[in-house]
Amino acid sequence: APTLRDVADDNDIRIGAAAAADPIREDFQYRDALREYNAVTAENAMKIGPLRPDEHTYDFEDGDLIAEFAREHDMYFRGHTLVWHNQLPEWLVPFQYTDRELRRLLEDHVRTVAGRYAGDVDTWDVVNEAVADDGGLRETPWLRAFGEEYLDKAFGWAHQSAPEADLFYNDYGADGINDKSDEIYELVSGMLDRGVPIDGVGLQLHALHDPVDPDSVAENIERFKDLGLAVEITEMDVAYTAEDPPEDHLTVQADYYREIVEKANEAGCDTIVAWGVSDQHSWIPHFDDTLTEDPLLLDDSYDRKPAYDAIVDLL
Ligand code: XIL
Fold first, then answer.
1. Number of domains in the chain
2. Which of 81, 84, 86 to mutate to test the pocket of ligand 1 (most atoms within 8 A of CB)?
3. Contact status, residue 43 vs residue 20, Cβ threshold 8 Å
4. How far apart are CA 157 and CA 252, in angstroms?
5. What's the pLDDT at 152?
């Protein structure tokens, strides 16, 4: 049977997975499984915490390894993420830094990391999760140090350091039409008006408990496309309430994956990345133990799940 990669390549679609460096090093089955996708995102390796063991050191070993794997296997490579409030290094205790120090630190970080992977990373999630769930910009060290300008600035630095890369704003809970995606729509419209070099919006699509209506996702994609932006689904997983999952939830999950790939693609989204290579590597059991533990396309033993087959059949 064809792999996801075969059908995705044939259809000019990208179906990807988030990946980590250690299992690429250690597990040949993981490497084989990762090659069944034609796109890859560094799940953690390019975040500021993992990259910066101390203030003056960058440790690019894991990021370089994933970049090399992507290059060798001709995969679309998503860099994730230059500016975020989470997974900060332990030494970076915001109140111990002045605003001016934080501004220097972030600029140096964005320029250094985007520059390091210029030519490797096709698309960067430049800023991740900057919008608060209850509206407005989230209170983060970066907002404190710069004010609202930090987004514009980060995109500008990234563009200077990696002029070929596409630059995205990425967030969760804004997959369909809702207040949060309205807010992001306003945010990126403003950036475009100001001439900020933003190329697209990433919808994480962690479909947890009660998956969002695919028609609403399609409508949301269309409105961002109408602004001239690209849209990608960047961190997809599908998990149900473990106590009361739908009957035959792997079939329901497969239908959901298929419907998202179909409708998102019709709406003009050509890239869908699952947040892990197989269920064995999913972050979901660590994140929320009330969820079913099989959110991805390959099972714990790297065997194809109904969701995998559904996408192959669709394409
Ligand atoms: C998660 C990783 O999957 C975990 O391994 C890590 O412990 C925490 O971060 N939104 C994002 C991703 O943008 O970076 C997060 O990834 C999941 C939620």
1. 1
2. 86
3. yes
4. 43
5. 98
Q: From the CA of 87, how far away is ligand 1's center (Å)?
A: 9
Write out the residue range of the structural domain in which residue 215 sits: 4-314
Ligand 1 center to 80 CA (angstroms): 10
Ligand 1 pocket, residue 128 CB under 6 Å: yes
Predicted confidence at residue 197, as pLDDT, reads: 99
| pLDDT for position 92 | 97
| CATH number of the domain that residue 158 is part of | 3.20.20.80
Averages of pLDDT over runs of 10 residues in the chain (315 residues) are 96 98 98 98 98 96 98 98 98 95 98 98 98 96 98 98 98 98 98 98 98 98 98 98 97 98 98 98 97 98 98 98
By most ligand atoms within 8 Å of CB, the mutation choice from 62, 125, 287, 288 for ligand 1 is 287
State the pLDDT at residue 20.
Answer: 98
Query: In a 10 Å sphere around its CB, with 0-12 CB exposed, 13-18 middle and 19+ buried, how is residue 171 labelled?
Result: buried
> What separation in Å is there between the alpha carbon of 273 and the centre of ligand 1?
13
Buried b or exposed e, range 5-40, using 16+ CB within 10 angstroms:
bebbbeeebbbbbbbbbebbeebeebbebbbbbbbb
Determine the pLDDT at residue 1.
87
